[in-house]
Amino acid sequence: MKPHYMYRWVNNHGLVLLFKKILIRRGNAFARLIGGAEGIENPYALIEEMRGEGGLIRALPVWITFDHDMVREILRDNRFGVGIPTVFGVPGPVMRALERRPLPPNLMDPPSMLMIDEPEHTRMRKPVSAAFTPRAIARLRDRIETVTGELLTALPDDGPTDLVTRFAAQVPIAIISEMLGFPDADREMFLHWGDDISPLLDLGISWQTHQRAMESSERLHGYLVEHLERLRAEPGDDILSSLVTSGDLSTYELCASATLLMAAGFETTVNLIGKGIVWLLAHPDQLARLRAEPELWPNAVEEILRIDPPVQSTARTTRTALEIGGVRLREGSTLVLSLAGANRDPAVFTDPARFDITRDNAKNHVSFSSGSHVCLGAGLARMEAAHALRALFETFPDLRLTDPPTRRPLFTLHGYQHLPAHTGPRVRSHVPIG
Fold it and tell me: Which is nearest to 84 in space by CA: 62, 55, 51, 101?
């Protein structure tokens, strides 16, 4: 056990975990949302319980909002910064000592782009943004089509399968691995590391979970350092090779960027595809409409993102004392922004709990955040999901779930761990991207 890992866990998670357990026993809705079984199985009932009249709501020891306009405003306002929400603070001298002990690059520590503000954020983001422009994403269409076709061919004809492990997880990990120049043989290792590391995005995780995340972060860091050395000697046609040869980022920063790109390129999309399967099977009328009008698939993906976002919430901290929504906040106040709640704001979306693939303003969701931290891979996730879902349902029109889906034990990255299914007879073997 590494002492500085323990100190960080106590500061960032341990005290929060204790406080959550106390509040859950008292029936506190916010604690149940971010720390109870309800927050995983059905967060939307708790969101509506807490929504009230909207605006900014006090949820000790933080603030939370489910208001669509306020969430967008805060995400675009540079008076609010990113960073791990401060609920309880370890004394300054202790934290200064901890900062002298570097952590392996991970999602929740600088220089991860999730955790830095301007001007460092722009410096880190600019070198990788060229790989995610609309033109760059469009060039991946043929590869997405090929990968999806190969995965569908590998699924059993009229037999049992797990649609997460065999399909939903495999599409995005294959594409982002290729974009970063990783060998195909290493995909399963990345999936394992991703499962270990992704809980860092939650508040108040257990010591065992935190320790496992940090150990996998160390292993991933070691892998990335070796991979970067290979690329320096023999650069390829991939994102990391271009970053290495540009010399704009240090090795540590390159590892941080690669870790985030792996997570962002995979976690959102696997949850999006998995949720899309569940929502469409639960609404056969909507699926029939898509079969009759396949041009609706892009909007169907937007509606899936709106009604059940893969990332449920994010957080911001006030960088100065300010007033918003009639509430005066001190510098350093933590705000939890419920993306899931904003996406079901009745002031913006009519009958927000209704799943409607023809909803004309579905794209007004905030599932990919907004402002300077808007998701770099949003366009890629949309393309992958639209094609993967369409191809799956056109290849296996009699697809059905055989057992209740199993949720991932996460609150922030919300999705399914297993989708037991029976494919039904194979009808089509190739579906071009529309």
Answer: 62
